[in-house]
């Protein structure tokens, strides 16, 4: 199951190994809308923007689909991108008025789309075997986690800012395969979960001792 939360409206977007995106009104505790994905594969990622009433879904067949929930079920899919050749790990819709769609597949290709155009406007190649990605909402940073036991932080130009392979300490062990990543909404902090049952928080700020 994948979800995305819209704080401004109290709506919860949900999907998964189904053929619809279901929208719930959490105040009234009821379903308000079903949006057909038009695909035979599962939904792997969701991202929404209340200002534009858009929902972006990444799918297991490599496609990224943009929906306008103000339109009817047969018309609401307004764009489909098919440039990824593998499972979409993350599809993210920037919250700015002119915000882009950013997506990445397990092959490590990060693609930037302008929602009104049919082709990507930029492509950055990271490493293969990606299992998680998150984009900082304020800074021009994104972080990738890999099944090959490392985290890489990039800027918007695709330059590597940091590589994390070991836990802190003189004899710090190798980190586990990354299962999830999340940036703090304002601060340069990154929370990481891994398959060795550790949860870690990394910061750009120096730690006081």
UniProtKB/TrEMBL annotation:
Pfam families, sorted: WD40 (PF00400)
Any coiled-coil regions, as ranges: none
SUPFAM superfamilies to which the protein is assigned, alphabetical: WD40 repeat-like (SSF50978)
Source organism, top-level taxon: Eukaryota
Gene3D superfamilies given in the database record: YVTN repeat-like/Quinoprotein amine dehydrogenase
Protein name: Regulatory-associated protein of mTOR
Species annotation: Characodon lateralis
Signal peptide positions (record): none
